[in-house]
Amino acid sequence: MEFVKLKDWFQNLDFEVAIKKIQSHDGVVDLVISLNDEKVYAELKREVRPQHLAIFEGMAEQRTPFLVAADYITPNAKTHLKAKKINYIDSFGNAYIDLTHLKVYIEKDNARPINSEHSNVFTPTAGQVIFQLLKNPEQINATQRHLSHVSNVSLGSVSKCLQGLIDEGYVAKWSEDQKYQLVRKEELLDKWIILLNEKILPAHKIGTYKFSKSHAERWNEQFINSGVLWAGEPAAALLTNYLNPEMFSLFTNTRKHNITKDLRLLPDANGDINVYKPFWVDDEMMGQSKNYMSHENVVHPLIIYAQLVYSGNNRNIETAQLLFNEYIQPNLQGLFLSKP
């Protein structure tokens, strides 16, 4: 079925390509094929988003030439794949292929995300609960009242989320002690990254600002012990020393009308600082990071990681992988170890 789907996608192109199947599942990739008599290693996915790219780069180092084929590939992911000279094709007839006997670059700007049926799992309020579960999967067995408190959502929202996770196969029950376990965590993380950036953050955005001239060059000296947590690029810069932030984001409980006075930030629709209110409880705004990170004034690494990979920026994606290796993988055993 995988080869049939891939063959159909090549037939959607405006010219003939000779495609043949050589082998299925060689231990690294889904298919080994030939395109115009040139051997190619192909990996098929339903969707490809920026958070998958580090995996594909690793696969491309093992199997060359390498092809990513997917029903849908985000624009940012396409840009990154092309920059890394990784071949791709999607179900909409868009392709970048640079082989000895086949050169293709087609971008019709017609690709759209795959629509799914309504789900109780991938809603903004459920996403706040999922954030807590990804931080600490053992919380799947916590009381709903506790999850409601730390997620800053209603008990009803927690109940719907948990039932949705069970119905959609992200939670399994162990028969021995009747406890639950979070499963398919790598897939859940992928979907939560989208949910965070497209739903949760916009809903919690206070506004866009810029630094005052006297503070622009000393951003890393600001907001220490002030109830403000850096996110995104500046948080990654503090944790890794690998990134020079160009876009800034932070979380604060400071009221909008006090931000200029208390934080010395200036409102600017074209500014480079996005300010959000936290989507977790207030009493976790400070001190939540000190037990496992060197900086206390940054948000949880899951948020930083999700913002970086969603940006599609190559340097951000490289930095996100560093964060994942050091802060996320050790705390979520088995998370994101499999292929996307």
What is this structure, in a nutshell?
The protein is an alpha+beta fold and 340 residues long. The chain is built from eleven helices and 14 strands. Helix 8 packs across helix 10 (301-311).
Folded structure, characterized:
- This protein is α+β, with helices and mostly antiparallel strands and about 350 residues long.
- The chain has 3 domains: about 1-105, Trna Endonuclease, Chain: A, domain 1 (3-Layer(aba) Sandwich); about 125-185, Winged helix-like DNA-binding domain superfamily/Winged helix DNA-binding domain (Arc Repressor Mutant, subunit A); about 205-330, no CATH class.
- Helices cover about 35% and strands about 20% of the residues.
- The protein has helices at about 1-10, 55-60, 75-85, 125-135, 145-150, 155-165, 185-205, 230-240, 260-265, 300-310, 315-330, and strands at about 20-25, 30-35, 40-50, 65-75, 85-90, 95-100, 105, 170-175, 180, 205-210, 230, 250, 265, 275.
- β4, α3 and β5 form a beta-alpha-beta unit.
- α4 (about 125-135) packs across α5 (about 145-150).
- About 40% of the residues are buried.
Question: How many domain units?
Answer: 3
Q: Work out the helicity level.
A: 25-40%
How many beta strands in the DSSP annotation? 14
What is the H/E order? HEEEHEHEEEHHHEEHEEHEHEEHH
Integer-rounded radius of gyration: 22 Å
* Strand order of the biggest β-sheet: 1-2-3-4-5-6-7
Helix count, DSSP H or I runs of 4 or more residues: 11
The major sheet is characterized as: 7 strands, mixed
Strand content: 15-25%
- Report how far the terminal alpha carbons are from each other: 19 Å
Low-confidence segments, given as residue ranges, are: 284-292, 334-340
Quick check: average pLDDT? 87
What's the overall geometry?
globular
Give the class from helix and strand content and strand pairing: alpha+beta
InterPro entries: AbiEi_2, WH_DNA-bd_sf
